[in-house]
């Protein structure tokens, strides 16, 4: 029998994810943690990182890396109150690096928290009724739900479903409270984990709920998904999706991005049973020997969808019905004001690469803080790294507009569609897995692409570009019309041909290109697109229709 991956023993022996985290955090001799504790810390929502920009310099000075901690909030459906925003803002300024990072999974990340300030940061979150439990590691992560949440009563129900799913699939261990919040110390055996067992899951596990026609959560990239079926304005149930995931390793054909399968229909009131059955099936059958083969997508490919569905039906006691018809028309956000079904207003604001910081001409951190002081509804983070000022009464709109204008919060919206919809993952300098730049390089890249598009007269055509610093796919580049995936410093693989609904994978067309080479390649495609585009045709669709890209393995999800 093949050996278990080393982390399996760390989890199993951790006494409910405690390990020696309390001691490691208190140890004054290092800014970092004991090796095994770095793994366990993830399941509590934090990663040990170092500043890669100064890694070599520190090494030359014989200093340990400058250990700092990334902390990720649990925010089901991306919802937080203005008071919570203010608490988050305060932590960013007093403990982290002075910026907030909105992620592609509808939440906030802090970067740069020193070890000695971890507990204080967690305590401040706790005081604002927030936590970071299970936002990283081999557990069910932050649950996504389609924005805008109060666009219809069904959206409201779906946001509530996301919250219930998140609670239901939380680990039961009190380790988080003990380690970070001075909770009572465990005496005796660790708490039972009826859903997870003592080794938790073989790998990360991601859940999302989408409300057609918007696929803003990119449901097909998730291990587990629910497509809301709304009839006569009422949520009647969900189409279940299983086995999506994007992570891959360069040069390893056994790893690949995969779109989820649509497995059948379930009534709305059986959501939790079915979710738990999917999760426990993966818990019991996922590959615990090879982390690169451990996601649910590989379990389903290896054993077959029919087997998987039968197992989920047996465990949940729910027989899935025939998939109900659904149609997605977009996977992006809609900017500007939108009126909700209840007469309240929602304003989506573009936040490039999700980064909110104060700079000389864009005092965005301050601007959002001022908004939070004034706003009486709530905030919603989108899965496209943007934020929504939600639930605004008509008379309050003017004051909000005034703040948006004063702090130039909408500066990134007065731009061509490419700039409004582009995503970039964090990458350098905090991500230890980055092979190339992404977030920091995006502004420069967009400028060059914009010039090309203008030259061909197609700058106003919607176009989705997403880039990542490595093949893990955190900004979902494999679902973009243009995906750039970092291979080495300054070099990227070029993927083309995703659609604008998150239902078609882009294909790898050229590898290891420097900027000049991929711009030249794109220039040729843009020229052809400008010359032969049909009315309303998208770039990704054109590439397939014109035969400029093709693949025997072309995959489309959900028809
Ligand atoms: Fe991710 C690992 C950042 C969404 C696939 N991701 C990481 C780490 C934690 C690096 C690490 O393991 O040490 C990155 C931290 C960088 C930093 O400094 O902040 C990181 N991932 C992010 C975020 C912040 C990207 C962003 O710019 O917004 C997103 C945080 C989401 C959240 O709030 O939970 C983020 N990551 C995603 C997504 C998109 C999604 O879920 O919709 C994916 C692709 C979907 C998927 O999971 O298949 C994704 N991240 C990965 C993977 C590859 C997983 C795999 O199956 O191979 C890794 C590496 C790993 O797990 O080994 C990874
Ligand atoms: Fe880091 Fe790679 Fe994810 Fe970008 S895609 S944040 S480089 S793991």
Write the layout of secondary structure elements.
Layout: H1 6-12, H2 21-26, H3 35-43, E1 46-50, H4 55-60, E2 67-72, E3 79-80, H5 82-94, E4 100-102, E5 108-113, H6 118-127, E6 144-145, H7 153-168, H8 175-180, E7 207-210, E8 224-231, E9 234-242, E10 261-267, H9 271-285, H10 296-303, H11 305-316, E11 336-339, E12 345-349, E13 355-356, H12 364-374, E14 378-381, E15 387-392, H13 397-406, H14 417-421, E16 423-424, H15 442-455, E17 465-468, E18 482-488, E19 491-496, E20 507-513, H16 515-532, H17 539-545
Parallel strand pairs: 6-7, 7-8, 16-17, 17-18
Antiparallel strand pairs: 1-2, 2-5, 3-14, 4-5, 4-13, 8-9, 9-10, 11-12, 12-15, 14-15, 18-19, 19-20
Helix pairs in contact: 5-12, 7-9, 9-11, 10-11, 12-13
Bound molecules: siroheme and iron/sulfur cluster.
Please tell me the CATH architecture of the domain at 1-17 and 148-169 and 192-325 by its name.
Answer: 2-Layer Sandwich
CATH class of the domain at 1-17 and 148-169 and 192-325: Alpha Beta
Strand arrangement across the biggest beta sheet: 1-2-5-4-13
CATH superfamily of the domain at 1-17 and 148-169 and 192-325: Sulfite Reductase Hemoprotein, domain 1
Q: Residue-averaged pLDDT, rounded? A: 96
SSE class: alpha+beta
Distance between the termini: 40 Å
Please give the count of helices. 17
Shape call: globular
Our Rg estimate from Cα atoms comes to 23 Å
| Range of helix content | 25-40%
- Low-pLDDT runs of 5+ residues are none
Q: Care to count the β-strands?
A: 20
The largest sheet, given as strand count, sense and whether it forms a barrel, is: 5 strands, antiparallel
CATH topology (fold) name of the domain at 1-17 and 148-169 and 192-325 = Sulfite Reductase Hemoprotein, domain 1
Present as ligands are: siroheme, iron/sulfur cluster
């Amino acid at each position: 029998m093949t050996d278990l991956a080393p982390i399996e023993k760390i989890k199993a022996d951790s006494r409910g994810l405690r390990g020696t985290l309390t001691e490691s955090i208190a140890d004054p001799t290092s800014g970092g943690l004991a090796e095994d504790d770095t793994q366990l810390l993830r399941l509590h929502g934090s990663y040990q990182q170092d500043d890669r920009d100064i890694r070599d310099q520190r090494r030359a000075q014989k200093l340990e890396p400058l250990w700092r901690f990334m902390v990720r909030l649990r925010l089901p459906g991306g919802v937080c109150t203005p008071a919570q925003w203010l608490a988050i803002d305060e932590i960013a300024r007093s403990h982290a690096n002075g910026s907030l990072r909105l992620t592609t999974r509808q939440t906030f990340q802090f970067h740069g928290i020193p070890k000695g300030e971890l507990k204080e940061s967690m305590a401040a979150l706790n005081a604002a009724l927030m936590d970071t439990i299970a936002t990283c590691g081999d557990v069910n992560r932050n649950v996504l739900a389609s924005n805008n949440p109060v666009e219809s009563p069904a959206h409201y129900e779906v946001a509530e479903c996301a919250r219930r799913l998140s609670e239901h699939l939380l680990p039961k261990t009190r380790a988080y409270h003990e380690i970070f919040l001075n909770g009572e110390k465990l005496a005796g055996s660790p708490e039972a984990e009826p859903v997870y067992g003592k080794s938790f899951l073989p790998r990360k596990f991601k859940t999302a709920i989408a409300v057609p026609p918007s696929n803003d959560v990119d449901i097909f990239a998730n291990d587990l998904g629910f497509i809301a079926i709304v009839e006569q304005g009422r949520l009647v149930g969900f189409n279940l999706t299983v086995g999506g995931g994007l992570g891959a390793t360069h040069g390893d054909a056994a790893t690949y991005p995969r779109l989820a399968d649509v497995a059948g229909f379930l009534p709305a009131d059986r959501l939790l049973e079915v979710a738990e059955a999917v999760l426990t099936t993966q818990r019991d059958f996922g590959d615990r020997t090879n982390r690169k083969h451990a996601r649910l997508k590989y379990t389903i490919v290896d054993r077959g969808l029919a087997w998987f569905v039968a197992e989920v039906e047996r465990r949940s006691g729910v027989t899935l019905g025939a998939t109900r018809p659904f149609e997605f028309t977009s996977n992006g956000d809609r900017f500007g004001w939108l009126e909700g079904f209840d007469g309240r207003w929602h304003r989506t604001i573009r936040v490039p690469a999700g980064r909110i910081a104060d700079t000389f001409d864009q005092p965005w951190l301050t601007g959002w803080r001022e908004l939070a002081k004034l706003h009486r509804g709530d905030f919603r983070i989108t899965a496209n790294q943007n934020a929504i000022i939600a639930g605004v009464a008509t008379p309050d709109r003017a004051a909000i507009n005034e703040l948006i204008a004063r702090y130039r919060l909408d500066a990134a919206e007065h731009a061509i569609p490419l700039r409004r919809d582009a995503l970039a993952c964090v990458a350098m300098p905090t991500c230890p897995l980055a092979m190339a730049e992404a977030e920091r390089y995006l502004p420069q890249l967009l400028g060059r692409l914009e010039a090309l598009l203008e030259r061909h007269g197609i700058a106003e055509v919607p176009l989705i570009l997403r880039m990542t610093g490595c093949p893990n796919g955190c900004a979902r580049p494999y679902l973009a019309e243009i995906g750039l995936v970092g291979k080495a410093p300054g070099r990227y693989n070029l993927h083309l041909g995703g659609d604008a609904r998150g239902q078609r994978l882009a294909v790898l067309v050229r590898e290891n290109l420097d900027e000049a080479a991929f711009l030249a390649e794109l220039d040729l495609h843009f020229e052809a697109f400008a010359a032969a585009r049909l009315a309303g045709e998208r770039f990704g669709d054109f590439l397939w229709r014109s035969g400029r890209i093709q693949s025997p393995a072309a995959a489309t999800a959900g028809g």
